[in-house]
From TrEMBL:
Domain HTH cro/C1-type: 12-67
InterPro entries, alphabetized: Cro/C1-type_HTH (IPR001387), Lambda_DNA-bd_dom_sf (IPR010982)
Molecular function per GO: DNA binding
Official protein name in the record: XRE family transcriptional regulator
Pfam families: HTH_31 (PF13560)
Amino acid sequence: MNVAELPIGRRVAHWRVRRRMTQQILADRLGRSKSWVDKVERGVRALDRLSVIREVAEALRVEPAVLLGRSLPLPTEGDTAESQADAIRAALARYDFTQRGHSPGPVTPVAELSRRVGHAWLTYQHAHHPQLLRILPGLLGDAQRTHTAQPTHTVDLLVQVYRVTSSVLVKLGQADIAWLAADRAVAVAADDPLLAAVAAIPLAQSLRAFRGDRMAMAVALAAAHSITTPNPDETPPGELSVLGTLLLEAALAAASRGDPCGVHELTDQAAEVAELVGDGHDHHWTCFGPAAVELARVAAAVDLGDAADAITRHEKITRWDQWPRLPAERRATHLIDAAQAYLQVGDLAAAGRSLVDADRIAPAETRSRPAVRTVIAAAARGGPATAGVARLASILGVT
């Protein structure tokens, strides 16, 4: 078979061997573990972020397009997350050395700022990522100026603006800028233990995306411990939601490190917290509850290479009555995880169906993720493609 037609992990292995590198040498060049390289090459761990693909390509001394394959063209500069994030990067790079209580520009009324922050989170949950990227630079500037003028009334709003910024940038493979936004959130929230824990959620997410699984786990656990109380039954549901979300972030970091015992322990702890919160809530924009725990179990199983467990759980989840009521972003992300699990067991038809369903729910989610291109390419080449798979393959340039 032509190298360009191989899955991306096998292309990495091919070029690593061509460059006379061991897995350990490549891992050292990338600042990652040998286990990470091995999982990428076997297709157990998806190479699904453009920024990481570029790092691997640089270490192998090839162009990123070579790893993506001739059927998976590298997006043009105008379509990349880097170009879309330029305005956000510029907004985060502004420093206003102004006395507290005095704004360097127009101040947005707190009620209006609160409405816009809520709109930004709903836009994220509906996976309208391009729209969110367009509104974030202005929202960041207005939130920063308003916080300078009225710091005591707007700290929570500024933390949430930084958090939603970090969250969408992680989705688009912009881990470095995502980490910057999350770090700003932690700095702003430093004097409030609960807000600091809220800010630790995007910090753990961005660190996990930025090659820091161990650090992400440490951050999430430290923040979780800071708000853990002796009597969970008496703890407000909002605080429990933040605690449970941090436990899930720690579990996902454990999965990235190849630690199944840590994953099971942390997800079980999160499940206990979720039972106290229940489903159907969105405290602190976490959407935490029993459903969130099950979605995380699937994502962790995929990362650990336990595709059979991931598929069994996935097929139960999509039969739930509450499945259609989950946010579009959560459902599409889960279906992409399921598609990777199906690919791991060689069920290309099911992998294709899962991605078509994800694209129907949230096109911006599926069409911005390199992992989707890898899976849909395999599904399209694996036999007669359904109309849905053929259409998505055409849209993504997989022909």
